[in-house]
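Hey,
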Amino acid sequence: MRILVAGGTGYIGGALIPALLGRGHAVRVLARPRGTDRRLKDVEIVRGDALNEASVAEAMLGIDVVYYLIHSMRDGARAFDERDRQAARNFARAARVANVRRIVYLGGLGGADSDLSMHLRSRHEVGRILRSQGVPVTELRAAMVIGAGSASFEMMRYLTERLPVMIAPRWVATRCQPIAVRDVIDYLVSTLELDGTAGRTYEIGGADVLSYADAMHRFARIRGLKRLIVPVPLFTPRLSSYWVHVVTPVSADIARPLIDGLHNELVVTDAAALRDFSIRPMSFEEAVREALAPNGSKNGG
């Protein structure tokens, strides 16, 4: 197939592209004019911006399937949710005009929108916008992705490795269902081979449901570390993001939306993905060991 990957220079995109190429698909990437990503080998690059409708329309010409992996994490001159809406509208309209067969979108887990953080609400809204022009959309919703290079995984990794005793915010007690990057890529690629997934929304997660504190304790055991985590109610999301910024390489403006999302329980409530796909996601421990292995960041493809 002729496939456009929107967000191909991101973490998931960087793992997805080799998997698509390995299956013989022709891949095109929409990339911003400035700079060149050395990972983009054996693909067609169209220079443009997701916020520019004309460049999106150009990138969409002759495309069968679009993988939509775009999600704003930083506020800028325009609020992140406004940028997310505009980019999704551009892609939805261009996909309809170009007669694209399907859009595959990786969004975020979460329940009722009224209870979600702003960033998770935005991710759900993007899915609705992508569906608004009539092109069939397969939406996969995931929580923390376990893999070397994933911002959420690296945040957990550095907090655990650098702090023997952690005075932690109360969000460490929130349950989530992390998933290995290799499983995410398998789900994304498998949608091409399963026509019945068109127009469907799937919740995907790993084999284990655990709190953020449990995840850090399990990570510590794998690394042979002893860690004490003491939750306290005094940390606001803003203070937590600055704390993460000081302790880890993850910047405060990236940590903030991740932390906001940790106030929501991100657990799979619909087992449709296990019924419709042959994928059996790995355990948290398996995912961590794979992420820590040499070249672990490449395990997605």
